[in-house]
Amino acid sequence: MWAIANLLLGSVGRVDQYGRPVALYSRTVHNQCPRRENDKARIYGQDLLCLKELGCQGPRTVAPCPTSLWNNRQNWCVDANSQCIGCTNPNFPGTSLRRNSDAD
Amino acid sequence: MPTNPTTITLDPVTRLEGHLKIEVTVDLVRGRQEVVNAKATGTLFRGFEAILANRDPLDAPDITQRICGVCPVSHGLAAVSTLENAARFTVPENARIMRNLVLGSNYIQSHILHFYHLAVPDFVNGPNMPPWQPSWQTDKHFTAAESTILVNHYVKALEMRRKAHEMGALFGGRLPHPPAFVPGGFTTTPRAARISKFKSYLSELITFINNTYLPDVSALAGRYPGYSQIGRGSGNLLAYGVFDLDSSGANKLLRRGRIINGAGQWQTVTLNAITEQVTYSWYNNANNNLPPASGATTPQYPKLNAYSWLKAPRYQGEPYEVGPLARMFVNGDYVHGISVLDRHAARAEEALKIATAMEGWVSQLNPSGPVYQRFTTPASASGVGLTEAPRGAPGHWVRIANGRVANYQVVTPTCWNASPRDGAGKLGPIEKALIGAPVENLQEPIEVLRVIHSFDPCLSCAVHVMRPAEGVKIFALGHYHTEDEEHAHGRAHQPSD
Q: Which of A39, B37, B396, B449 could join B82 via S-S bond, C-beta 3.0 to 4.6 A?
C-alpha cells in the first residue's frame, strides 16, 4: 500500500539493486524483530519465543514485515510462531525453508 | 449472421486467475447462432513439480501455496496432509480446527470475489468509468436502478473480502500464503483475544452473505432465467470432500463422492481410477494416462495436435466437473440442475453453509490445548493429500526417498474443469459446457464469457483481445483494431487491469 500510494504521489524514492524501495527494504527482519532476544523455540506452537533454531531466515532477509505487519496489522509470520522463510529474498525459495540444513 | 462457421479466440480470458485461452467456433444451428466447437488452452507451463524435486519435503507447503494467490490455503492444506499421510500422522484437535477456520475464511473471500468482481461485470452495465467501461453492451438485462445497487455491492464486496482476509490472518499469520500450516499441526496458538476478534469478523461476513450475496444471486437468476439451461458441461461431478470434523477425517462438512451424469446415486471415489491424459497436452506421450502417484511432468513443445499446458485428468476415463456445485450436489445440499446459474447459486449457498459451521468451530478451540506435535519426515514413504479449494478439488501426491522429494505431483481443480480433450476425444467440462451456448453478437460473445466464468477457473481481469480467425479483426474491450495495428501497438493499448 505504501508503495502504491507513493507511486501515485510520484515516487517511491531510492530503490535497491533489485528495484525495491529502500525506504521499505533496508533493515533485516531479525533486526526489527520483537523476539530477537527471547529464548529460542525448539518446536512449533509456542508463543513469544525466537524462531532462530527452527531455521528462521530473518537474519538474512530484508523486509518491513515486523513493523508493517500483514492484513491491516492483524498478524505476521513470527507472531504466528512461524519462522521467516525469506519470501522477499531474490533467490527465494533457493534454500531449505523450514529448518537449518546443509544448504544454509 | 455468419454464412460460414466463425472461430473466435478469447486470449487471454480475463477476470480469472492465471492464463487461459478459449477458442470457440460459432455456427447457425436450427436458425440459432451458437457455439459448435470449443478448445480450452492453459497457456502457462507451471513446473512446480520440477521445483520440488530433490527438495526437503517440509518445503512443499510453502512452495505449493505459491501456485495461486487466491486459493493458497487449499494447497497448503493439501501439502501438509500429503506429508502427514506419508508419515501416518494425526494432528492435534486445535490444529484441525484452525486449519478449517483459515480455509473457511479463504472460501468466503474467494466466493465473494468470484461473484462480485469476476462474474457480475458480465451481466451488469456499470457506470461510465473503469473498470466498468468500456464494456460489451450485448444482452444486459438489469435496470439502471438494479445496476446501481449491484455496483455499490461490488464496492462493498471489496471491503468484505479484505475483512475475510484479516479474519483468516488472525490464525494463519497472514494472507495470502499463510505460514501457519506445517506438517505436525499448526504454529499459531488460539489466544482468547484472537478468538474474540475472529467471531466479530465472522458475524459481519455472515450478515453480508445473508443480506446481500444470496439475494443478489437470486436477482441474477430473476433477470437471466435462460442461464439455468446454459453451460451444463460434462454432467459428472467429483468432490474429494473438505473440512474434517474429526481427527480421522472420516466425517467432513462436505463429503467425498461423485455424481454421474447429473443424477442418481452418490458414488464412491477410488483413487486409482484417476489418471492424467496428455494426448492433447504439451507433454510426452510416453507418460500418458498415468495415475498421479506415478505421474511425470515431461514437457514436449511443440507437439502434434497438442493445444494446452494442462493435462486432462479423468476418472475411469471420464471428464468430471469440480467446484462448489459438485461439492454441494455430492453432499445432498444442492440437488438441482447443472448450469451457469446453478454454479452461482451453489457457490453462494456453500459460502453460508461454511460460514455458519465456522461459528461452531471457533467455539471448539481450546486456548490452553496443543496446536502441534513434533513431526519427523519419513526417510522413505509415499503420501497423498486430497482436499477442496474454493474452485474445486486439488490433490497432491508425493514420493519421498532418502528424506528428499523423489516425485511430487499436483492435480489442480482447474486441470479438471479446463482440461483439453482426452485420448478418446472427450471434451473437458468447460469445453463441453460451451457447446450449444448461444452467441447473439459475434463481436461481443458475452455468453461464452459467462459460461467460462461460472466455473471460477483459477487461471484476474477483463477480456483483452479476441481474434476471429477467418478475418483480420482484433478486438480489445470495445475497441477495434486491424491485425497490423494490433501488432504495432502490442499490448500497450489494453486496459491495465
A: B396
- For chain B, give the percent of residues with pLDDT over 90: 79
Contacts of B73 in chain A (CB under 8 A): none
Label residue B223 by pLDDT band (50, 70, 90).
very high
Measured between alpha carbons, how far is B164 from B178 in angstroms, rounded to an integer? 13
pLDDT over threshold 80, residue B267: yes
The H or E element containing residue B106 is helix B93-112
Q: Could you say which of A43, A77, A97 has the minimum Cβ distance to residue B173?
A: A77
User: What CATH fold (topology level) applies to the domain A27-98?
Assistant: Cytochrome-c3 Hydrogenase; Chain A, domain 2 (4.10.480)
**Cα-atom radius of gyration of chain B, to the nearest Å?**
22
The Cα of A21 is separated from the nearest Cα of chain B by a number of Å equal to 22
Single-letter amino acid code for the residue at B169: A
Helix axes B93-112, B340-364, angle to 10 degrees: 150
Amino acid identity of B159? Answer: E
Question: Chain A: residue nearest B184 by CA?
Answer: A44
Query: In this complex, is the C-beta atom of B406 within 8 Å of any C-beta atom belonging to chain A?
Result: no
| Residues B371, A72: C-beta atoms closer than 8 Å | no
A45, A93, A101 member nearest B189 (Cβ): A45
pTM reported for the whole predicted model: 0.92
What are the pLDDT digits (tens) for B36-77? Answer: 999 999 877 777 888 999 999 999 999 999 988 888 999 999
What values do phi and psi take at B78, rounded to 5? Answer: -60, -40
B284-311: average pLDDT: 91
Q: CATH number of B43-432: 1.25.40.10, 1.10.645.10, 3.40.50.880, 1.20.1250.20?
A: 1.10.645.10
